[in-house]
């Protein structure tokens, strides 16, 4: 009876295709889960130490208006190969060494110095130019200079009014240091949109053979290697969790007239 049932052509016509389909789906889901856990990690960031490159929620006031910023979110390549193939000025996820401070040990920063290098940052108050140099024994000296300029950043923002979503573009103006590389440009700021007070970063540092040097792009509001140069706990490859490979972000606007602002609901995963 049982053998005849399984040999039935109608039963085989629907049973085995469904079985193979469910098996294929389970293999794909399991593979994706393992691949994500081993190589890629979704990130949701919070904080302002990478301003103006990245934003992480909160409010920025300018011209009597309140800009409500939504969190950046994206992916980080957390494979060890990504850590050992970093390029200078890549953005990375770090796990801070003990005693570096902060309420959240995970931080997103930019890599400035690599193990065994001697790095230096100088500032010319007349020309308002930063000069960064890095050199490892037996290697050519790396030199990069900045240009200080007024920078405008435009956001597509929205707010709710009369039951409808209103989309607008708003612009923030502030002073930044622009570093131009052959394949990209990044900007650091020691002037926040709310304040004209500046915080310069000048240093000379010989890195240990296993030590990395990272900084947030917002020099006025970042806790990083610069603030921990005298700390005996070094930032090593073990504390580098991976390289940030993609990010997305939204910014919402509240005109100050009482409209409800739709804020991002993701819980922050990493603070920068």
Please give a structural write-up.
This protein is α+β, with helices and mostly antiparallel strands. It has two domains: 34 residues; 236 residues, no CATH class. It is 15% helix and 42% strand. It has three helices and 16 strands. The strands form three sheets. Strands 13-6-5-14-4-1-16 form a seven-stranded mixed sheet. It is globular.
- Would you count the extended β strands for me? 16
> Strand order of the main beta sheet, please?
13-6-5-14-4-1-16
Number of discrete helical segments: 3
Give me the Rg, rounded: 25 Å
Structural class: alpha+beta
Strand content: 35-45%
How many structural domains can be distinguished in the coordinates?
A: 2
Q: What would you call the quaternary organization?
A: single chain
Shape: globular
Order of helices and strands: HHEEEEHEEEEEEEEEEEE
Quick check: average pLDDT?
A: 77
- Unreliable stretches (pLDDT < 50, length at least 5) are 258-269
The biggest beta sheet is recorded as: 7 strands, mixed
Percentage of residues assigned to helices: 10-25%
First-residue to last-residue Cα separation: 67 Å
């Amino acid at each position: 009876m049982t053998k005849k049932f399984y040999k039935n052509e109608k039963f085989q016509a629907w049973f085995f295709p469904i079985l193979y389909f469910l098996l294929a789906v389970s293999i794909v889901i399991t593979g994706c889960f393992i691949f994500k856990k081993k190589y890629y990690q979704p990130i949701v960031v919070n904080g302002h130490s990478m301003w103006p490159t990245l934003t992480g929620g909160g409010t920025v006031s300018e011209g009597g208006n309140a800009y409500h910023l939504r969190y950046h979110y994206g992916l980080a390549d957390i494979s060890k190969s990504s850590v050992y193939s970093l390029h200078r000025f890549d953005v990375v996820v770090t796990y801070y060494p003990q005693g570096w401070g902060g309420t959240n040990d995970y931080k997103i920063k930019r890599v400035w110095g690599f193990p065994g290098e001697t790095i230096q940052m100088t500032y010319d108050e007349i020309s308002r130019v930063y000069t960064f140099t890095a050199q490892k024994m037996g290697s050519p000296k790396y030199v990069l200079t900045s240009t200080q300029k007024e920078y405008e950043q435009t956001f597509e923002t929205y707010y709710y009014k009369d039951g409808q979503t209103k989309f607008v573009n708003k612009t923030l103006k502030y002073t930044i240091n622009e570093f131009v590389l052959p394949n990209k440009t990044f900007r650091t700021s020691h002037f926040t949109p709310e304040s004209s007070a500046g915080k310069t970063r000048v240093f000379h540092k010989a890195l240990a053979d296993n030590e990395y040097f990272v900084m947030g792009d917002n020099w006025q509001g970042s806790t990083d290697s610069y603030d921990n140069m005298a700390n005996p706990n070094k930032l090593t490859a073990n504390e580098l969790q991976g390289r940030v490979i993609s990010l997305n972000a939204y910014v919402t606007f509240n005109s100050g007239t009482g409209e409800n602002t739709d804020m991002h609901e993701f819980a922050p995963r990493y603070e920068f």
